[in-house]
Structure prediction request, 427 residues.
Amino acid sequence: MSVVQPVPFPLTTLPGLRYGFLGFPLAFCALPLYVLLPNLYAREFGIGLAALGAVLLGARLFDAIIDPLLGRWCDRLYQRSLFTVYGFGAFAAVVLSGGFGLLFFPLTREPVALVVSTGLLLVLTYSAYSALSVAHQSWGAMLGGDGVAQSRVVAWREGLGLFGVVTAAALPSLLGLKTMVAVFVVGLLAGWLLWLAAPRPVVVVALQQTGDMWQPWRVGAFRRLMLVFSLNGIASAVPATLVLFFVQDRLEAPDAMQPLFLGSYFLVGALSMPLWLRMVKRFGLAASWLLGMLLAIIVFTAALSMSAGDTWPFIAVCAVSGLALGSDLVLPGAMLAGVIERSGHRGRAEGTYFGWWNFASKLNLALAAGLALPLLQWLGYSPGARSPEALGALTAVYCLVPCVLKAIAALALYHLLIKPERRLESQ
Prediction:
């Protein structure tokens, strides 16, 4: 058995940038794929919401299902060598770049052919994105450290990722889709090159692999954390899918203001990272996450009363929601790294854990697109609708449903994670 030398903590600026920068292009492409693409295909390409929802649901379900397999495969790549992981990452980056470009500049606009080709391209693009993400997340978890140290690792990755999201939110409106695709490809190349110089993690190389793809589910702490993470993720995925419909039809906001909504949300999320790191030092990971959930519920409730013209108040809602977003991005991932550490699986099964973790994330997005969009159509809403009934349905699905789901997630977090932890501490 041999190990690669662990990285010292805390993760300082230059090592953090080298590891975390790949999060920039990965998050950069996520926003267009999950937020801009549904709106583009519905409004510009004329694809019906039901058909679009079905395509997105199918592609995202496939993406979710293969994530655990990709995670297990990543574990085997890490067992070979870190340079095998680099090579795998380079291949995934090439596939991801090609699929991303073709989705925003399709070769056909004929409706049936467009729907079929979009479904195939989404499967290919999602698969490459997932493979690269799992490999990168596993690398960070293998760096080890306590809750505060892992929070710093995740903060570098997710913080740079949020700056990628802000860039992706602004570029289409300011410089067009072609520039957006070009910046993504260049950023992906830069992220991979910096990854080559990143701190090397601890990897335990054994003669025999331990466990299997289902190993994480035998860990009770993982099952409880996954339940909370999934409930919270669905609550966040619904408004992420519907935000552009809300600002265009409910608020009647001009197109020029759309980057302000998305930009304020993600920029504040990125800037909030140091705040949440301080919260972790004082209250711990789980309690800090609970505070973030409660903040999100309060601010989203305020959006229920908004109507046409409330653009600047909604920017304030986006900014405060971004503050809550910081907790969702930093804290659950650090908690997962702690579960892996305590279960004795660090250096052996990070890919498998993050494969299931990403499975839950993708399933949340699939349900949001596959259920929320057809539900809106069934309730009488379609893009461009202005009737009180249609706008009421849009507001309820966009604002109220996430608040209810977030409240359920907060209760689960308290009863399944925080309360038992406090009981153990008091013994």
In short: Confidence is low (pLDDT under 50) at residues 1-9. DSSP finds 14 helices and no strands in the chain. The radius of gyration is 21 Å. The CA atoms of residues 17 and 260 lie 26 Å apart.
